[in-house]
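Quick log. Single chain, no ligands specified.
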Amino acid sequence: MVNTIISLAALALSVLTTLIEAAPAPSPAPWGPHFGSGFPVFPGFPGNHAPCTEDRIKIRKDFDSMAPEERKAFTDAINCMMTKPSQLNQTLYPAATNRYMDYAVTHVNLTQQVHLSGFFLTWHRYYIHLFEQDLAAQCGYTGAFPYWNWPATADNLHGSAVFDGSEYSMSGDGVYVDDGPVVLSPVFQVPHGSGGGCVNMGPFAGLQTTMAPIGIENLIAGLPLPDTAFQLNKTCLTRDLNTYVAQRYCNYTALYETLETDDLQTFDHLINGIIGGAELGLHSGAHFIMGAPASSIFVSVQDPIWWILHSMLDNLYTSWQIRHPDLAMAVYGTETANNAPPSPNVTIDTPEPGWGYFDPNRYPIRNLMNTTSGPFCYKYDVAL
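-> predicted structure:
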């Protein structure tokens, strides 16, 4: 039976006609003094935050480069988060079975504002930061926050530390289920991966997801979430590791093309899909390396791989900002996904939509543009 998954690339294709004319011009601003590996510091973030100095800065690490015990400490902390009670109203959100799933529910609630919009990159940057803080506060995790280096693992997914299925991995592939090619749109499909069924190896073996996928048409057309969005729907975590997608869309050539582009609009299209054809981009490709639920835009957070997938996205965005300091404060997009319903263009002073109960404050985008100012004090171990 053909697996009829709709792609993130299809979303990127639909965004072109509605956003390209509405895109605001970049808003360049000077970056402040440099320290440590040439990382820029943007001064002047308001709020009660200690200055980000050399002795305080945290280093995010490539998951593959971390020692086994460091990797296990990270996955242990995620599993710990799943033992913490939900703080959401269980009548409204029965799928929020624990604090970890509160993050997944929050992502669903805000998907239509923080994807294919001007909030995408900075909202997700702060969302990861909140989760990192919560791992420390709830579960005592003080180690490095890892990222999954997509091109470095593209030729050997199963042999990478990320997916080797050991207790020191992010768990491996799902059990193989032959359900045909992955159909992403009427004119675009990719070969089936090597899994498709339940994950039964590594630290997340036996994990139960709680929300069913939500149709991508809701995002494209700006429709309300279905009434069943937060209905409890328990099933095993599934994965379908896809080497074809990894090698085709998440390779070093695609990475450096994205890093070298000199405008944020092109950067946005290259990460979310190649505009003008049925193709995946770097970020959307990484989701489709995994298969469902990680390839389902609304409910993807249910798979813990989401966090290190998106810290790699943040690494990519951070590296692009460093390579293009005159564009580091640029913004692109409107306040709604695919500009549906129509909404104003974002500016660096547009308030973010908040992050649920984890932080309901609506900080302006400008406050979240730099990883060494304001609430942030981190950089990546290796510049891309």
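The first strand starts at residue 34 and ends at 35.
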